[in-house]
Design brief:
The chain has 298 residues and is α+β, with helices and mostly antiparallel strands. It is built from seven helices and 17 strands. It has two domains: 59 residues; 200 residues, q2cbj1_9rhob like domain (Jelly Rolls), CATH 2.60.120. Bound molecules: pyridine-2,4-dicarboxylic acid (PD2) and zinc ion.
């Protein structure tokens, strides 16, 4: 929420934002702090939160004593979302992705990261690049300030989006990811392709939408939060261009056909999913990114 001057009335947008915070796992104290930081009067903020969350929880059919308990407990534990996840029971070396066997190359618990080998064939990588190349433009980043998109110096790559299922190739890859991660194909955003030339990078960021930003409720109307990311490497730079996780000093090498999957059950830094694309030093790096949402992304 911005610090600009605004009238202190409880609008439907404010109620929606409060509910989104609660559902994203933020307790009343965190939500209140965020509202105060944005310039809300404390009495108005407390009243808005109390009334909104009571009504919301009642609509979910909770008895009054549970509502009070949830309000008191801050809902922290309750609101962690189920997330996409491969079936790693029994520590398999290979996973069945329907039309392809995918190799498990590495697994980390926190952040939740799984490195996957051979998610795509070389032919699929080349075909994605060929289909994307004529449609490349300087990358836009979704801005949670307004809910719109803008050019951003943190991402110096070129990019484009496929729409979901727009070609047989795209649909095949989407079905593979859905099967591998046990997550409905309908909950996926369209695949994004990015091209990094030497010097290009993607500075460390979170892929979820920051619940404290004023544009986030607008973004969340379409499919809810992002819960997981799959970055697929389509071409190998000769040097540089790894995907980094600075909180745990971990880097995934951008090997063609391989992918890194990571998930975030809460839109919160405690997930340790801060990640970036290291500068490409030599050669070109192409990736395809799939973001998975809570609900159907239309
Ligand atoms: O290119 C990457 O390695 C990278 C790094 C961070 C891609 C993304 N984020 C992304 O597409 O979100
Ligand atoms: Zn990212």
């Amino acid at each position: 929420m911005s610090k600009t001057v605004f009238s202190q009335t409880i609008t439907p947008e404010l109620r929606q934002w409060i509910v989104a915070q609660a559902e994203a796992g933020h307790g009343p104290e965190a939500v209140l702090k965020s509202m105060l930081a944005s310039g809300w009067d404390e009495d108005v903020a407390v009243e808005a939160m109390d009334a909104t969350l009571r009504k919301h929880l009642a609509q979910r059919g909770l008895p009054p004593e549970r509502i009070l308990a949830q309000l008191a407990a801050g809902q922290q534990g309750a609101a962690a979302s189920p997330v996409p996840e491969p079936d790693l029971a029994g520590s398999p070396l290979y996973l069945d992705a329907g039309d392809r066997q995918v190799t498990v190359l590495g697994v980390m618990a926190s952040p939740r990261v799984v490195v996957l080998g051979g998610l795509l064939s070389d032919e699929e990588c080349d075909a994605l690049i060929a289909a994307a190349r004529p449609r490349m433009a300087r990358s836009l980043v979704v801005t949670t300030l307004t809910g719109g998109e803008e050019v951003n110096d943190d991402r110096t790559s070129n990019g484009m989006f496929f729409t979901r299922g727009e070609s047989e190739l795209v649909a095949r890859i989407e079905a593979r990811i859905a099967r591998l991660l046990n997550w409905p194909v309908e909950n996926g955003e369209g695949i994004q392709v990015l091209q990094y030339r030497p010097g290009a990078e993607y500075k460390p960021h979170y892929d979820y939408f920051d619940p404290r930003e004023p544009g986030t409720p607008t973004i969340l109307k379409r499919g809810g939060q992002r819960l997981a990311t799959v970055v697929m490497y389509l071409s190998e730079p000769e040097k540089g261009g790894g995907t980094t996780f600075p909180d745990v000093q971990f880097e995934v090498a951008p090997k063609r056909g391989n992918a890194v999957f990571f998930s975030y059950a809460r839109p919160d830094p405690s997930t340790r999913t801060l990640h970036g694309g290291a500068p490409v030093i030599a050669g070109e790096k192409w990736i395809a990114t799939k973001w998975l949402r809570e609900r159907e992304f239309i």
